[in-house]
């Protein structure tokens, strides 16, 4: 298909986080295409594999496009006096997150940058397998995260050590035991979650202490929304919910 016939893919959540991070660090102002940081971001976005080559036009995320996106963001910020350029719904969601939790969002942006800088392993999953994945926050981080926590050697070690200690595999957060509920079919089933991944950036899990064993529900609840709570924080959420339902 000739380039003129189609548009570049819409900006993903992770891409917008990087652009918004740049605008915020620039005092809420947009940046021109020739700005070195815009050029750097343009290169980084082209290296990310969120959008397969087949759907990219030749001008995919070039410095002009990135500069325009910083203008969309800057003119959508509260306090901007002129008319906003046309940013999408997702732009506004990311901006709202930056305004509400700037520190969290800057560290999310750092994590994304670090994972791209590390270079992508060839077996990085394209999709992680969540139903609403294309709408999820931090899809790129999620793919990295899934890659890390699927390390089969560390996973086996973790499971064996928990089995040796407790004789069974239960979710560290809610206590759900697949073997107990599903019998033979569920025995030995559990998901592995890499605990420190958001903060640790490019580092993969190194010891079994970096892994938590979780049931599928708890694991998914952690990744539904950024920032990802730790298993202990999720346990607190479950307890608080329990309390509020009793009263
Ligand atoms: Zn659980
Ligand atoms: Zn996880």
Number of domains: 2
Kindly estimate the percentage of residues that lie in beta strands according to DSSP: under 5%
Count of alpha and pi helical runs: 11
Report Rg: 21 Å
Residues in helices, as a percent range? 40-55%
Topology of helices and strands:
Blueprint: H1 13-25, H2 36-47, H3 63-76, H4 89-100, H5 102-117, H6 139-149, H7 152-166, H8 178-182, E1 191-194, H9 197-200, E2 211-214, H10 216-223, H11 231-246
Helix pairs in contact: 1-2, 1-3, 1-4, 1-5, 2-3, 4-5
The protein binds zinc ion (2 copies).
One zinc ion is lined by residues 145, 149, 193-194, 219, 223.
Structural account:
The protein is elongated. It has a two-stranded antiparallel ribbon with strand order 1-2. With 247 residues, the chain is mainly alpha-helical. The model has no long low-confidence stretch (mean pLDDT 88). The protein folds into 2 domains: 3-120, no CATH class; 145-246. It is built from 11 helices and 2 strands, in the order ααααααααβαβαα. Helix 1 runs antiparallel to helix 2 (36-47), helix 1 (13-25) crosses helix 3 and helix 1 (13-25) packs across helix 5. Helices cover 51% and strands 3% of the residues. The chain binds zinc ion (2 copies). One zinc ion binds at residues 145, 149, 193-194, 219, 223.
Index terms:
mainly alpha; binds zinc ion; elongated; 3% strand; two-stranded antiparallel ribbon
Short note summarizing the structure:
This protein is mainly α and 247 residues long.
């Amino acid at each position: 298909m000739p380039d003129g016939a189609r548009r570049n893919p819409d900006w993903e959540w992770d891409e917008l986080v990087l652009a918004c991070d740049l605008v915020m660090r620039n005092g809420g102002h947009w940046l021109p295409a020739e700005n070195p940081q815009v050029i750097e971001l343009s290169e980084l976005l082209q290296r990310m594999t969120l959008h397969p080559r087949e759907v990219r036009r030749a001008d995919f995320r070039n410095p002009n496009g990135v500069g325009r996106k910083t203008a969309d963001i800057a003119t959508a910020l509260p306090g901007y006096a002129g008319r906003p350029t046309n940013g999408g719904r997702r732009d506004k969601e990311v901006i709202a997150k930056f305004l509400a939790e700037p520190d969290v969002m800057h560290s999310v942006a750092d994590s994304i940058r670090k994972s791209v800088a590390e270079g992508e392993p060839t077996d990085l999953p394209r999709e992680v397998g969540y139903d609403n994945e294309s709408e999820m926050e931090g899809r790129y981080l999620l793919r990295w995260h899934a890659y890390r926590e699927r390390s089969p050697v560390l996973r086996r070690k973790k499971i064996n050590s928990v089995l040796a200690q407790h004789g069974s595999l239960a979710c560290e957060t809610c206590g759900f035991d697949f073997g107990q509920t599903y019998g033979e079919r569920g025995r030995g089933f559990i998901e592995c979650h890499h605990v420190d991944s958001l903060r640790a950036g490019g580092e993969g899990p190194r010891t079994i202490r970096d892994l938590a064993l979780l049931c599928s529900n708890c694991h998914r609840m952690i990744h539904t929304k950024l920032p990802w709570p730790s298993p202990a924080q999720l346990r607190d959420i479950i307890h608080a919910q329990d309390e509020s339902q009793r009263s």
